[in-house]
Input
Amino acid sequence: MTSIIKATETDSALLSEIGTKTFVESHGHSASKDVINSYVNEKYNIDAFKAELSKHENIYHIIYHENQPAGYSKIIMNAPHSGIPIANATKMERIYLLKEFYGLKLGVELYSYNIDLSKKNNQAGMWLFVWKENQRAIDFYEKAGFRIIGSHDFRLTKTHSNPNHQMYLEYQEQ
Output
C-alpha cells in the first residue's frame, strides 16, 4: 500500500533524514566528501526544513510504501524563471526516492501526484533543474515529455557547483 501525505513542520526531522540520505545517494559522488557534507549540513538539517515548511509557497509531500517513508518532493507554484515563457509554471525543486524503493514505480507515482496537483492549481507547465550526469533522471523526465531548455550551475558551496540542465514541460490542453 502506498500513500502520499502533505508534509508539515512536524515532519522536519523525517525530511532531514530522508533528504540527507537521498541527496548523498544521488549526488554523493558529484563532489568531494567535504563539499557534499558541507552542503547537506546546511540545506538538509532539521531547522532548514522547518524554515522551508513554514513558507506557504513550499509544498512538500512524503510518499510512504507499506507505512515506510520512501521519498519526498518539493514544488513551488507560480515560480517564474527567465527561461520559461509563462508565469504560472510550477518548479519541481526536489523529488527524491530512497534507493531501497527503486523499481516499485513510487517515483512515477509521486511525480504524477505533483503534476496533477500543479494542473489542479491552474499551472500551465512545470520546470526543474537536473544534474547533467544524472542520466537516470534525465531519461525519466524526457520520457515524461520534458525538454532541455537551458543550463544552470547548481552551487553546492562557494567554490563548487555542478552543471545542470534546465528542463520544461508544457501541459497540453485537456
